[in-house]
Each structure stands twice: as structure tokens, then as C-alpha cells.
Amino acid sequence: MTASSKFIKVEAGKQFGGRYVKILNVSTRIHITGLKQTELESLAAEMGEPKYRAVQVFKAIHERRLNSFGEISDLPKKFRSRLEESADISRLTVDAKYVSTDGTRRYLMKTSDGYPVEAVFIPSENRDTICFSSQSGCPLKCDFCLTAKLGLLRNLTSGEIVEQVITVLNDVYGIGGETPHGTNLVGMGAGEPFLNFANLVNALEIMSSENGLFIVPNRVTISTAGIVPQIYEFAKLENRPHLAISLSAPTDEMRNKLMPINKRWDLGELMTAAKEFEGSLRRGERFTFEYVMLGGVNDADSDARELASLLERFQLSRVKINLIPHNGAEQLDYSTSTPERVERFKKTLESRGVSAYVRQPRGSDIYAACGQLAAMDVKA
Ligand code: SAH
After folding, report:
1. How many Cα atoms occupy the beta-carbon half-sphere of 302 within 13 Å?
2. Ligand 1 centroid to 142 CA: how many Å?
3. Ligand 1 pocket mutation, candidates 131, 144, 288, criterion most atoms within 8 A of CB
4. What is the crossing angle of helices 228-236 and 267-278, to 10°?
5. How far apart are CA 156 and CA 187, in angstroms?
6. Residues 118, 160, 192, 290: which is the catalytic one?
7. Closest CA to 216 of 190, 245, 240
8. pLDDT for 248-267, tens place per residue?
9. CA torsion 136→137→138→139, rounded to 10°?
């Protein structure tokens, strides 16, 4: 990041004798990557530049995925230096990158004020997926999740959310390189996206732009631990991505222990919101409940039956269950369910007419799998 300087008058500045002093003023700089095209147009207008110049800058950042104003060589010099004085394209640094034996890549990044941010690239035959974080750390205390151990460090800005995706794309495909398989996005990294709702929605809008990354909402899935008011808000969004809700328990008693957020909004409230959300589904669309499989805790046949009954009680029919075998870590007290148990659980759900899928863990050798993002360093 280029340090900006700003001159301020030190009022009654005895020790400076009232002189102007040059100070480092990081906070007033704009992270331009977090501006929508319309916002960039206003910024350009303030700098006396026409609209098409803003479009040019937006495209340079999001479509050509350039990292610095210096590389936007088709901008007038004056405008470029105004931008350099007042704004940053890049505010994240990549501290480490880990590559799994299965091709998954985990990026451990840092904000300019030193907070960890993680993003994961998950290749697959037909389509690649990028998993981004919405917060540094997480305030929710899900008992089986490693990120929870960090607590909340801070919300990420829209620019920091978008920049994670740009950074991953540039690393995988080269700066500005085409994305041969297209890209799916999942908001399933560190943090609770619905506790950073405004920044999230803003970032998604930026990333969907035709002049930029052009990752449309239909390619995006956001996962929530169950922040009920935001589920209602999300359902109302005009261009809404897909939704996943982390459930992991069929009863309040069990869910209170595993996911304390359940004490704030219990299963009755969560399922009522889910039912309302179901009403917003488009033709052929379904939504997902994620269920982390914890050996001997929530993986009995009776749990599967209770889960099916819960869905029946709330008449939820356009749902699928993603079973996620627990990814372990030394700091976590849980073990994963055996593959046979997972299969039985799945079959029990299916026998009750509920679609269930098993999510294969990806990148668990480098702490990149679900629930493992806790800024962990691993040996190369
Ligand atoms: N806070 C949001 C976004 C995180 S998504 C949410 O909870 O939905 C990450 C997913 O991984 C969630 O479904 C979460 O329940 C699951 N998860 C957390 N810890 C895990 C672990 N150790 N193993 C497998 N899945 C885990």
C-alpha cells in the first residue's frame, strides 16, 4: 500500500508552533475495489473526470484485475496521480499460500491493519469454486468449528471481500486471465456473512457486474448459521444468491449446545424463516441445510428421523441436506462420523423423501476444509 500524506493544521499547536505537519493518514484513503461503478463515477466526477473514465477504472480493477493504478496506462497522467494520492486498489497482502494434494489452495492474507483473512480455491472438473470470508475471525461459538476459537476480529469491508476473489483468480489464472471453467462463489469461509450484511450485499453487487468479474448471483451461495432477521432480508433481495443454512442438529436441546446462536433464534424461529425463504425460490431452485456430522453426537438414525420430521413439521419440501463429515483439529473435541454412518444417515433421510448429499472434504491436509479456517500456519 502506498502511504498517503495529508497536510493538517495543528490548531494552537504549541509543540509544533502552529505549523502545518505532514501526517500519515491511512484511514481517509479509499479502497477503490469496494466501490460500485456508480460510486466510482461520482468519485471521478469529483475529480473533474467524465463517466467513461470511471468505467475504464472499474474495468481495469475488476475485469482486467490490475493491482495498481500505474498499470492502467490508458488513463490520463493527472487522473492517475489523483487516484494514487487518494485511493488503493489493493489492501490485502498474501502472507502464505498452501496447496493441498487434491489441488485445493488456501490463501492466508492480511488486511492493511494486520487481521487475518482466508480464501480457498477448490478446483473441480466442471467448475471451480472460490470460498471467501466475510469476517476476520467469527463471533459465533459453534462448538465444532476452529474459526470460532479466534472470536470476532472485525468485519471485512466490501473491498476486502471482493479483493479476496480477485487475488485468488489472479493467482490461479494469471492477472486478468480468463476463467476457463467459470467460477462459483461460496460465502462459507471465516465469519458469519449475515452479521456483515451490508458489506456482503455490496460486494456481491460489485462482483456481479458485467464490466467486472461478472459472477452472477446464480453462481453464488451464502451460508448462514441462522441469523433469522437477515434470512428475511435476504429473501427480499432482487438479485438474490442461493442460500445455505447451517443446521447440524434436529432439536433445540442439541443445537443449543453445538451452535449457541440457537439460544438467540431457536429452531422454531429458524424454520419459520426458512419456510418464508422457500417462498422466494425461483423455478427449479432449492436451498440447502448443512449438517456437520459429529461421531456419536448428532449422527444416529434417530437424529436423521428427527431431522426429517422437523422438515415435515414446517412443510419444507424444496430443500436438500448437505452432510459434512466433521473436519477435525487438535483444538476440537469432536470426531468425524464413519463413512458407513454418514451413508446410513443419508439413506434414512432419503427413505423419508429428503434429498441428501455428502460433501467430500477438500483441502483438509492444509486446513482449508469447512470449519478449519483459523489462520493456521502449516509446514510446506
Ligand atoms: N458462519 C456461516 C458461514 C460458515 S460456512 C455458517 O455457519 O454457515 C462453514 C460451514 O462449515 C458451516 O456449515 C459450518 O457449520 C461448517 N463447519 C464448521 N466447522 C466444521 C468442521 N470442523 N468440520 C466440518 N464442517 C464444519
Report:
1. 4
2. 8
3. 144
4. 0
5. 12
6. 118
7. 240
8. 999 999 999 999 999 999 99
9. -100
C-alpha to C-alpha distance for 192 and 187, rounded to whole angstroms: 9
127 Cβ neighbours under 8 A, 6+ residues apart: 181, 182, 183, 184
CB 375 within 8 A of CB 110: no
Burial per residue of 357-374, b for 16 or more beta-carbon CB atoms within 10 angstroms, e otherwise: ebbebbbbebbbbbbbbb
Q: What H or E segment, with its residue span, contains residue 356?
A: strand 355-358
Contact 373, 131 (CB under 8 A): no
At 21 the pLDDT is 39
290, 294, 327, 360: residue to mutate for ligand 1 pocket, most atoms within 8 A of CB: 290
Ligand 1 site residues, Cβ closer than 6 angstroms: 142, 144-145, 188, 192, 223-225, 246, 248, 290, 292, 324, 326-327, 370-371
Question: What are the phi and psi torsion angles at 233 (to 5°)?
Answer: -65, -45
Query: In angstroms, what CA-CA distances link 366 with 308, 371, 380?
Result: 34, 12, 9
pTM > 0.90: yes or no: yes
- Residues comprising the chain, all counted: 380
Q: What's the CA-to-centroid distance between 309 and ligand 1, angstroms?
A: 23
Percent of the chain with pLDDT over 90: 84
Residues 6+ apart with CB under 8 A from 110: 92, 93, 95, 116, 117
What 3 state SS string does 219-259 have? Answer: HEEEEECCCHHHHHHHHHCCCCCEEEEECCCCCHHHHHHHC
The residue annotated as part of the active site, out of 131, 138, 142, 370, is 370
- Catalytic residue list contains 131: no
Has 330 been annotated as catalytic? no
Confidence (pLDDT) at 321: 98
